[in-house]
Amino acid sequence: MKINVRLLLITFTIVVLVTASSSLVYYSLTNRIITSEQKQNILNATSDFIFNFQLVMEELDDNYKKLLSENDEVASISLNSEYTDFIFTLRDDQYIDFDNFSAKNNLNIRSKYLTLIQFLNDNPNLILKYDVRDDNTYYYGKVISEEVLNEISEKIRANIAFIINEVPAVVTSSKSKPSLFSKYN
Fold first, then answer.
1. Which helix (H) or strand (E) holds 169?
2. What is the pLDDT of residues 78-119, one digit of tens each?
3. Mean of the pLDDT values across residues 26-45?
């Protein structure tokens, strides 16, 4: 009888050790595979984001060139149905020339004597570009809004947050979009 108890105890100990070590190996390999997959997904989303953001920049440039080729007077350009959100020139290389200014209503403009630096400080969520034509420097751009981020977010299949001073300023809406890691949750 003593042999059966000893044999049973040895068998039980071996089973516990094998189970514990196989569980540890399984957990370690699974964790490594999931981490590797998440890193690859983040890398792919980052590459897709860069590519799609460059497309936004190209579309902004193309729209600006089309607008200026149709009409040289910036003040008479209507941007309501256009991709570009604002176009202006500067007066005295410092102040925004509101006689040569066109914009949508989604900008923060606090006075008619606004410098370029004040404009950028009041509107930190801008893509600002410039173009020199006929001795005039034209500034144009797009407001980074939820719509712009949602458009990119749908293409890259990941949520995006635009952060200003360590605070999320614009975040994509997560309606009907899978999270980057949703298959692991």
1. strand 167-171
2. 888 788 999 999 988 889 999 889 988 888 888 888 899 999
3. 93
Strands (E) in 8-164, as ranges, are 86-91, 95-103, 126-133, 136-143, 161-164
Helices 146-156 and 2-70: crossing angle, nearest 10°? Answer: 130
Q: How far is CA 97 from CA 88, 102, 136, in A?
A: 7, 10, 12
Q: Is 102 exposed, middle or buried (0-12, 13-18, 19+ CB in 10 A)?
A: buried
User: Please, what's the largest Cα pairwise distance for the chain?
Assistant: 105
- Tell me, what amino acid is at 25? V
Mean pLDDT in the chain? 86
| pTM exceeds 0.85 for this model | no
Beta bridge partners of 95: 91, 115
